[in-house]
Write a structure and sequence with these properties.
Four copies of one chain form a homotetramer.
Chain A (H helix, E strand, L loop, with lengths): L2 E6 L4 H11 L4 E7 L22 E2 L2 H8 L3 E4 L3 H13 L3 E4 L6 H14 L3 E3 L5 H13 L5 E8 L5 E2 L2 H11 L13 E2 L7 E3 L2 E7 L5 E9 L2 E9 L6 H13 L3 E3 L7
Parallel strand pairs in A: 1-2, 1-4, 2-3, 4-5, 5-6, 6-14, 7-11
Antiparallel strand pairs in A: 7-12, 10-11, 12-13
Chain lengths: 266, 266, 266, 266
């Protein structure tokens, strides 16, 4: 049996990568693209993607459901439409797999409650890279034993925000298992402000920005006589695809909505 | 209540570090040193360790048990005596915590059976560094998702054997969760023999030996567009102490013998 | 005054990147593309590159020279045509900047002699990445003081050959300044063949091949109590452009042909 | 002919390491220890060092010179006595090799002038590790081509000051060859203060402090599509010895005083 997927966000770069990845999977098919324009056209007619088999574009969720009866919604859109897309999916018994970040805490809570009531499996993952998620998960596991931690995240110099979202998420996951405590020497002196990095419950975060860099993070956990380093390098968008495919299969087997890919890795 | 420990291997460097570490713990006390010579002397009289409170040396296990009634045997000796020490400990209801490597598979099996019959908790750990054990454990966890793996282990150039025991143990743990498969290009050519390293079920192991180095290992797990690197640096012997202390407390609560510190980390 | 460049190899990916890089430079212009076909067309008509200003294609070197009078030949072609292109350039007083690898030692010698006789500046560079060339240059400089060296080169698993050309070149540059000597323990034992890597005059080279990786190299130089690591990561083709632009300016000022970008970095 | 050395600072750990290193060199001999106490005793009588051949202690520089006629003063003392020691050495035609840091800029200038007038070779080196000095030297060389730079220095958590002296010295050497410029995105936002590190002419310095660490530094130089990383790890005090021995030989051949080991590495 073929798994039928509706894709929202086909025009983005992540959407484009997802089309290519899913086309290689024998038992998966993208049966429809959800968009706000070009209803009735096919993706290749809209020059969105050079797919062999035409994927029809729908602007109406209801009509899309009736005509294609999808199993899963893969949503790679933007914060302004993702909530509605997810709500419609859950209402229609379609499992949402969502990579869009920017949903508020309240929205996530409402959608989780709604999905669980309906018994519809779903996943919202701010990061679909399995390697990155394992780095975060292992950091939290190790932090129970090695409690002095610094994070170095490195990105290209076109990134505006520091620290990165992944570094903040890593710190949060560590904070859940580790007591806050002062790190470094108690009389520590910064002769140049900022040298010791950003502080978050004692942990330090350092943000590197250089031309050439892509997306990298190192979590350093130190103890007497030893150092454990967990590093992830993300070289291109293809690193998100295995996580997306794994999530698509996983939501079919569950009856609740989870937040974070780490919850479906064991 | 104070935990009473008998130490075997007090004259070695690990033994010496263990004395210092345990002396700092309020509810632990080394009540005796087990040795083959100098019965009746104290460790400081034998110039073994400059301990404040004299630790008496025993050459007879039976007499040691009668006079000091220890809870735990910490064995940091050599392969030729460790089996007998452990056997005697289990027989006398003393929990063994053993860092000596070199026990055969059959010996470990016999001791495990004996300890489990007697309901005596124990642990044999080839590596007491929590950081190193986490690196190995995480490697095996990650290998289920990122199946292409290379290990780089780096040691000082006075190390005779390659690959290191830790690298081999890591590979074994990975082999338990991952299918063997050819890595690299199928038409791969080594223009200089050895360039691609040692092969073990498709995994590659590379051994670096340089003056200056201590003990380091990196496990590289690659997938499309990403790399996860798990690295451990061991800078000195003090990195083994937290694992030893954790094991001493853990064996009191268990009724079986386990092999590998990873089994008492959750 | 504008520097007039003829490009050979416009249809390749390096050629395409070079067109984009040169178009951003105010005082440089690509006045012609040298090719074996499509004489008389413009690059955009051949769908080679979407350049704003048409670059005319020539199949005849002589006619190209007469009609465009270029200062510099930038050759990013293949081993089978590069010798003739360079010879023609030198004969016509056009300075060659050549990134094509695969010229034989004899060919390089002949071209060098010819260029020097004619007083024509030129450069053949197997690697135009300034960072990679500095890594190699620094390795050779440091090898005079830190004589125990291992090289780890890491590439994607679609690379057939091991070790990489850059690793071999690095080793050669080090061999010029360092005496051959046995590294590691004199009684060293490989329990798994290949663990200690490829040997070249005592130095060890280790080749990592993993999906996800791009092109990376680390040179480790060890001595008592310390380690110096020189690492280069090449993330994409744009890293070659600054070296190409630097070479184009440099050949105008010199009257001889040099091999290797390191000769124009001071 | 044997090179006669007077050692100031024999009671320190660096002094102790220097005695061991020099004892292994055939044509070098420590003929005297300069100290403020225990005149007339030998080092082993003062329990300073367990040397086979007794090294006599002198409290008077004049008498030391008359009785032992040394060629070189190796000064590994403290800021309060080093100036006078160096002055006395130069006055008596003894070449100073000085590892003590803490001399003021004015003192260095005066001593340099005095040594150059007298034609006495000498060297003051804040860091005698050849690897560390090469890392700094290469950073400055590379900074001419790769102008976006971040420094990560990592030390044990007992270090009070941040950034480290080596990081500051590296930054200074880079500032001499590179124009100050803003690095990172022009609209960069720090959501947690300090994330982007300390700023020094656009360069960023990040200080890591963790238990277990020793002394490490990484200089990252980025450009389009590439990253050059120069890293030094200092594992123990023995890494300073080759630099000290090299300096002892070098000062015999020169007639001026230099500041920084980089000046005698070519």
């Amino acid at each position: 049996m073929t798994l039928k997927i509706v894709l929202a966000g086909a025009r983005g770069r992540m959407g484009s990568a997802a089309i290519e990845a899913i086309q290689k999977i024998e038992d998966m098919e993208i049966v429809a693209a959800l968009d706000y324009k070009n209803d009735g056209l096919f993706l290749h007619e809209d020059k969105v993607h050079d797919t062999e088999i035409g994927i029809p574009i729908f602007t109406s969720f209801d009509r899309l459901v009736k005509e294609t009866q999808p199993d899963v919604l893969l949503d790679l859109t933007t914060p302004d439409v993702v909530y509605e897309n997810m709500y419609n999916a859950i209402k229609n018994g379609i499992r949402p797999v969502v990579g869009t970040s920017g949903l508020s805490f309240e929205e996530i809570e409402k959608l989780t409650e709604f999905a669980n009531e309906q018994g519809i499996g779903g996943i919202i993952a701010p990061n679909f890279s399995i390697g990155a998620v394992l780095m975060m998960k292992f950091s939290a596991m190790a932090a129970r034993y090695l409690e002095d931690i610094e994070i170095i995240e490195s990105h290209h110099n076109q990134k505006v925000d520091a620290p990165s979202g992944t570094a903040m998420k890593t710190a949060e996951m560590i904070m859940n298992v580790r007591e806050s405590h002062i790190q470094g020497h108690e009389d520590e002196k910064e002769h140049l402000a900022g040298a010791r990095g950003a502080d978050i419950e004692g942990m330090k975060i350092h943000s590197i920005r250089l031309p050439g860099l892509l997306a990298h993070q190192e979590v350093l956990l130190g103890a007497d006589g030893e150092l454990l380093t967990l590093r992830h390098d993300s070289f291109n968008r293809s690193c998100f695809m295995p996580g997306i495919l794994m999530a698509i299969r996983n939501v079919l087997e569950r009856k609740d909505l989870v937040y974070g890919l780490e919850n479906i890795l064991d």
